[in-house]
Amino acid sequence: MSTRNVARFWECGKKIICVGRNYAEHAKELKNELPTEPVLFLKPPTAYVKEGSPILVPHYSSNLHHEVELGVVVGKAGRDIPQTSAMQHVAGYALCLDMTARDVQDQCKAKGLPWTLAKAFDTSCPVSDFIPKERIPDPARVELWLRVNNVIRQRGSTAQMIFSVPCLISYISGVMALEEGDLILTGTPKGVGAVNEHDELQAGIEGVINMTFTVGRQAFTSSDI
Ligand SMILES: O=C([O-])CC(=O)C(=O)O
Ligand SMILES: [Mg+2]
């Protein structure tokens, strides 16, 4: 894959690997135990949405939550990657939202079912433009923020992550091969909450990038895509 294609990672059709409960304060706010190893789940490439298109509340949910996260874009494929060379596999970053149907996730948790319906629906992965690696010299020093209708909801530093970016790359690549254009969502800091139709959602990485999305509602109609 060319550098140009990695820069348009959302068009590559590659996988999105998400990490849950990677910030202690967020694990606590949802009354979850702190993980002893990374919690992983996946989103399909159809989850991507870019600025200019709305985030859609799934037709089967009435409690859509925002989660602002640092995304890591893979630039070099690998399997069983050691932590010491993990950063060589990073092409760059993206500001990401892990949109979550919290009511559906709660039902999945109660029934012991996977989180797919809660996390993998169309538009569940809003992303910024590609951020070249040089613009973020240290992924453990990134300040994330998120506002809904101009009110600050989330603010956190990636310094608070339980598992670092090199640790996550090493762990994930021991489970599944990482490929160029894959995206890793590294977990959300505290402050998650609901968004509703017509809300305006703004998120940013301090001093690097910001993005704006509006919220709409998914219609349950058959259509060609
Ligand atoms: O749904 C959750 O709370 C897990 C998750 O994605 C996160 O911690 O970022
Ligand atoms: Mg998340």
UniProtKB/TrEMBL annotation:
Instruction: Tell me which InterPro entries the record gives.
Output: Fumarylacetoacetase-like_C, Fumarylacetoacetase_C_sf
Q: Which GO terms describe its cellular component?
A: mitochondrion
Q: Which UniProt keywords apply?
A: Metal-binding
Task: Output one GO MF annotation.
Answer: oxaloacetate decarboxylase activity
The Fumarylacetoacetase-like C-terminal domain, residue ranges: 15-215
- Which Gene Ontology biological process is one annotated for this entry? carboxylic acid metabolic process
Give me the reactions it catalyses.
a 3-acylpyruvate + H2O = a carboxylate + pyruvate + H(+); oxaloacetate = enol-oxaloacetate; oxaloacetate + H(+) = pyruvate + CO2; acetylpyruvate + H2O = acetate + pyruvate + H(+)
Keyword S-adenosyl-L-methionine, does the record have it? no
* EC number annotated for this UniProt entry: 3.7.1.5, 4.1.1.112, 5.3.2.2
> Sorted alphabetically, which Gene3D superfamilies does this protein's record hold?
Fumarylacetoacetase-like, C-terminal domain (3.90.850.10)
Q: Which NCBIfam families match?
A: PRK10691.1
Family, as annotated: Belongs to the FAH family.
What name does the UniProt record give this protein?
Oxaloacetate tautomerase FAHD1, mitochondrial
Task: Give the organism the record lists.
Answer: Bagarius yarrelli
